[in-house]
Each structure stands twice: as C-alpha cells, then as structure tokens.
Amino acid sequence: MNLVKSGESTVAQKDERVLVLLCTYNEAENVPKMIEQLHASIPNADVLVVDDNSPDGTGRWVQEQMVTNKKLHLLSRTGKLGLGSATRQGMQWAIEQEYDYLINLDADLSHRPSDVPRLLAECKNNGDVAVASRYLPGGGFAKIAFHRRMMSWMLNRYANWLLRLPLTDCSGSFRCYRVHVLREVELTSLSCNGYGFLEEILVALHRDGCRFGEVPIWFDARNMGHSKLTLSDALGAIQVIHRLARARRRA
Q1: Packing angle between helix 197-207 and helix 83-96, nearest 10 degrees?
Q2: CB contact burial 30-58 (16+ within 10 A = b; e otherwise)
Q3: What 3-state DSSP class applies to 95?
Q4: Average pLDDT of each block of 10 consecutive residues along the chain (251 residues)?
Q5: Distance from CA of residue 100 to its chain's centroid?
Q6: What is the bridge-based pairing of β-strands 218-220 and 140-142?
Q7: Kind plus residue range of the DSSP H or E element containing 118
Q8: How far is the CA of 169 from the CAs of 20, 165, 208, 219, in angstroms?
C-alpha cells in the first residue's frame, strides 16, 4: 500500500477538521467534477481519494492535482480490493490523521456534494453518525433504472428487518461519522471487504451505543461510466447481513 499525501491538512471552522472520503475504481471522468463541487460545497474540508489502481488513470490524475491542491490526498492501493476494504482504510487514515469528522460518499456524483453541509450539520447537532436517506420524506431516486431501485429497496428493507437498526436507509454509503466513534469500534475487528461493510459498520456503531441521525437526499444516476454494483455484490451483502444477524441473536 503506497500512501501519497500533500501538504498540511486544512483546519475547518472552530478547529474542527473534516475529511471527505472518495473510494474510486475507474472514475477519471467523474472525480474532477466531484472534487470541484466538494470544494465549493465545503471549502474547509480535505478530500482523501482511496484508489484501487484504476486502469483509467484516476489515481494518476489525483496525484497530479495534489501538486497545487493542498487539500487533496491520495491513498493508492495495488488492485481492486473491494469497497469495504477501501472504506475501512480511509476511516483508519482519518483516525491516524486526527480528523474530527469523516464524510463518505460515492465518487460518481450519484450523491450530490451540495448535500454534504446538511449531513455534516446533522452529525454535529444530533448524533455521532448521520446517514443520508433515500427513503425519508423529501428523498428518493432520480433517473435510476427500476431493477436497481428494487434491488436497493429490497436489500435495505431486508437488512433493517434482520438487524433492527434505527434507520430508514442502512445500505447507502453517503454518511458522516464522528471520527472518535470510529476509533472506539476497532476497525480491524471488521472483516467485510465488499458492500456488506456498509451494514457491518452500522451494526458495530449501534452496538457501541452511538446516536444516529438522518437527512433525506435524492440519489441520482451516476454522471459517467457504469455502475459497479452487481447481483453478486448484492448476494454477498446478504450473506454478511445473515452473519451479523446471527451474531446479534447470540449476543
């Protein structure tokens, strides 16, 4: 694992340090616009890109931009190792660099950077973790194919039913975490490297007594490229949900 870091991290207002995490694989067409919009929406935040050796040069573009953009950082990995693994390493980096808040969202612009300030405010004011929900009143899906909406809805409802999480949306990645609660979770104890990590981390945080908040968001069709969520990913997430539910019953 090769870490490339730019200059000193920017300090947000009131000395609260905010890091935005983008996990990427072949997002060279989307990342420039995403980073531009993030800097406009939350100018005091740093951005960390965890790139899985994208063949399209995503990581190379980020590294080039870091020469002049001191708020941009890169964690370059050896290959496509999974969303859960990438998110976990980004969280660990936020802990090591002593940020106060970590905001995670998809790099393909399906999550709107303009929603980031609302999510951060919810986390600061009402909880340890704030989740962007597609299922609250005022949220939903925009121009998303019916089969993808159904797959997401079924996976989310199934996870909520089995895991008893106090959330309307537990399968989306757009979230804000207080970094100190991630430190207490002991990330090395979490084992899922795929999409099931999204539920695994919530279960661990809920078990630790964290307070949750939610804000409604619209989930858009990705800006460029193709979705990386496959049926096998969904089935893998279901297996993780079953494992977590069994562990919950034994506890």
Answers
A1: 50
A2: bbeebbeebbebbeebbbbbbbbebeeeb
A3: helix
A4: 46 73 96 97 97 97 97 96 94 98 96 97 96 94 78 77 86 96 92 88 93 95 57 59 61 53
A5: 16
A6: parallel
A7: helix 116-126
A8: 20, 9, 19, 12
**95's tokens:** 């802990």
CATH superfamily entry for domain 2-250: Spore Coat Polysaccharide Biosynthesis Protein SpsA; Chain A (3.90.550.10)
The pLDDT, as a whole number, for residue 159 is 78
SS3 129: strand
- Ordered by start, the domain boundaries in the chain are 2-250
Residues written for the chain? 251
Cα–Cα dist 137/189, whole Å = 35
Tell me the one-letter amino acid at 28.
A
Angle between helices 31-41 and 116-126 (to 10 degrees): 50
Q: How far apart are CA 49 and CA 69, in angstroms?
A: 13
Closest to 23 measured CA to CA, from 94, 79, 95, 84: 84
